[in-house]
Design brief:
Layout lengths: L4 E2 L2 H5 L14 E8 L2 E8 L5 E3 L9 E6 L5 E6 L6 E6 L6 E2 L7 E6 L5 E6 L6 E6 L5 E4 L7 E6 L5 E6 L6 E6 L10 E3 L7 E6 L5 E8 L2 E8 L6 E4 L5 E6 L5 E6 L4 E6 L4 E4 L6 E6 L17 E7 L2 E7 L6 E3 L9 E6 L5 E6 L6 E6 L6 E2 L7 E6 L5 E6 L6 E6 L5 E3 L7 E6 L5 E6 L6 E6 L5 E3 L7 E6 L5 E8 L2 E8 L6 E4 L5 E6 L5 E6 L4 E6 L5 E3 L6 E6 L6
Parallel strand pairs: 1-12
Antiparallel strand pairs: 2-3, 2-25, 3-4, 5-6, 6-7, 7-8, 9-10, 10-11, 11-12, 13-14, 14-15, 15-16, 17-18, 18-19, 19-20, 21-22, 22-23, 23-24, 26-27, 26-49, 27-28, 29-30, 30-31, 31-32, 33-34, 34-35, 35-36, 37-38, 38-39, 39-40, 41-42, 42-43, 43-44, 45-46, 46-47, 47-48
Length: 571
């Protein structure tokens, strides 16, 4: 056997960002298929499902675990063709097949660095699986990266090449870890767990465009597909089913997940925008999917530019209205109303020129409006009861709000042209938190009329009111999407609330954010891509990506609640 030179770790960690490759084919998925006992590499079109290339390696032997190069011109893969399991490289048409490693151990699970210089892989050269890297141009230069107890496997580079995510059994259970490849304070690469649960997690894949990580998590006798941020925040299920779902990978734009399903597996696509599951291949045995690389700089799903979120902040017991940019996280305007009183429950007008809000400035809580810069403050209703939670109709001519004028909270409509107020619910219990549908024909709200607090929908044409949820726990503060029939709301789960969604017909109910924290008062972004909400007993605002489930902090308080996203004027 040829000896393998070991390079100093400092050499490996100097991963230089070379010039960006010309990207070619972001809609192909490479995978391993077993036919007649032979394992080989295939590719499939991620849109049409057509198999594009069959038996690419086309050698007698087990060829598996394909991984695209950053320019989509080559594969690195695993093969046992020479008697032991090694890494090989070939062109995407199967030409120029070259062995990269030569060792009596098992070298497997390769992943190509974003800039094409390095390949990380897992090997049991020391008896247990550890992570190694090799230089693509001089593959005899191999460096061991981990030296922890147990097995360390399933490595995957971060999008910028500075970190590697992997699975490790060093603490007894299999958890997901992130290795820092180089920082000034930690030149040897700190290794940090981002999951610590009682079940095994495996096969993590880092997004090509964000810090989201997808992985498989054991749930009894099968695996589910989960996601988590590289910082360990925002852990959430993407797909839970009776099937065994495993080896997931991201599409280049973070909008889809490819994965393998069942004991005689085929490939599936999960569309994260609709949560629709689509079969991609029909087997007979298809695993280890790897999506081709997208163009350098493919943008992730982020909040649209030039957006603002208005919210209520308490500073030194004063409640006032503020706005924050969801992209830069900078507070844009502070103390917009700027009156010595409590101003809360803000709501944008459809053209974003006005803000409706509740205030107790005149001794009782009434509805007011003002221009978006805080000028032109006008009282809209005047009643000794509590009038609050205004929501502007899509056409801009009416406000729905909640009031306890009859002793219990009911919903009312204010005609902005005439000032006429009309009661629109008259059910037992409290009826509050109204939110218009995007077409103005329905209002979703919360009601305790049946003893428990549930979500109801009122048809504004017929007057009919129907329950949307009927559970044993309380649901509250529903918000209708600006563009679809999706409704987000908070649902109590023991001592805290989760952020959930449901469609207006009662279908596709799911948890968007379910953690040990208390999460409440959610609202949609204009494109349904994000939800903003408040978190904890001393709340600040958080953003959840509804496509990936990733959660990040938006503000840091001291006390920020009732967020409302700026409207899309066309809606």
């Amino acid at each position: 056997m040829k000896s393998v030179g070991i390079a100093p770790l400092s050499v490996v960690l100097l991963i230089v960002a070379s010039a960006a490759y010309c990207q070619t084919n972001p809609n192909q998925i490479a995978f391993m298929r077993i036919v007649g006992g032979e394992q080989d590499i295939y590719t499939v079109d991620a849109v049409s499902g057509n198999v594009l290339q069959s038996r690419i390696a086309n050698r007698p032997g087990a060829d598996t675990q394909p991984c695209w190069s950053p320019d989509n011109e080559h594969f690195v893969f695993v093969s046992a063709r020479d008697g032991n399991v090694e890494l090989y490289k070939m062109d995407i048409d199967g030409q120029n097949q070259t062995r990269l490693t030569n060792h009596p151990s098992v070298d497997q699970q390769p992943d190509w660095s974003p800039f094409g210089d390095w390949i990380v892989f897992s090997s049991n050269r020391t008896g247990r699986y550890q992570l190694y890297v090799l230089n693509v141009n001089t593959p005899t230069v191999v460096t061991q990266l981990t030296n922890a107890p147990g097995d360390n496997q399933d490595p995957c580079w971060s999008r910028d090449g500075t970190k590697i995510v992997f699975a490790s059994t060093r603490d007894g259970n299999k958890d997901i870890f992130v290795k820092q490849m180089f920082t000034p304070d930690s030149p040897l690469g700190a290794e940090t767990p981002i999951t610590r649960t009682t079940v095994n997690e495996e096969a993590p894949r880092w997004s090509q465009v964000s810090d989201n990580i997808v992985y498989a998590k054991w749930n009894g006798g099968q695996r589910d597909i989960w996601t988590i941020g590289a910082d360990g925040l925002g852990e959430a299920p993407l797909l839970t089913s009776p099937c065994d779902d495993f080896t997931p990978d991201w599409s280049p734009d973070d909008t889809k997940i490819v994965f393998s399903r069942t004991l005689s597996p085929w490939l599936m696509i999960l569309d994260l925008r609709t949560y629709q599951e689509l079969p991609l291949t029909g087997g007979p045995y298809d695993i280890y999917p790897h999506w081709s690389r997208g163009p350098v700089g493919t943008p992730p799903v982020v909040p649209p530019a030039d957006e603002q979120i208005i919210f209520m902040r308490i500073v030194n017991t004063e409640q006032d209205l503020y706005t924050v940019d969801p992209v830069t996280k900078a507070v844009v305007r502070s103390r917009i109303a700027n009156m010595p009183n409590n101003d809360t429950h803000p709501c944008w007008s459809p053209d974003n020129a006005q803000i409706a809000f509740a205030s107790n400035r005149d001794g009782d809580v009434d509805i007011y409006s003002m221009s978006s810069d805080g000028t032109g403050q006008v009282q809209l209703v005047n009643n000794p009861a509590v009038d609050h939670q205004p929501d502007w109709s899509p056409c801009g001519n009416r406000l729905a709000f909640s009031s306890n004028r009859t002793g219990r909270y009911q919903l009312y409509l204010l005609e902005l042209g005439s000032g006429v107020v009309t009661q629109i619910t008259n059910a037992p219990g409290d009826n509050d938190a109204p939110s218009w549908s995007h077409d103005g024909t329905q209002i979703v709200f919360a009601s305790t009329r049946d003893g428990n607090k549930d979500i109801f929908v009122k048809d504004m044409t017929t007057g009919d009111e129907r329950p949307l949820t009927r559970t044993s726990v309380k649901e509250e503060t529903p918000r209708w999407s600006q563009i679809s029939d999706r409704i987000v709301y908070a649902r109590w789960n023991g001592g805290q609330r989760d952020i959930c969604e449901i469609r207006s017909d009662g279908s596709d109910a799911r948890v968007i954010v379910g953690t040990a924290d208390d999460d409440f008062t959610p609202d949609w972004s204009p494109d349904d891509g994000h939800v903003v909400f408040s978190r904890t007993l001393w709340p600040w605002l958080m953003l959840a990506n509804t496509v990936t489930g990733h959660v990040e902090q938006l503000t840091n308080g001291p006390y920020d609640i009732y967020p409302r996203w700026k409207r899309t004027p066309s809606n």
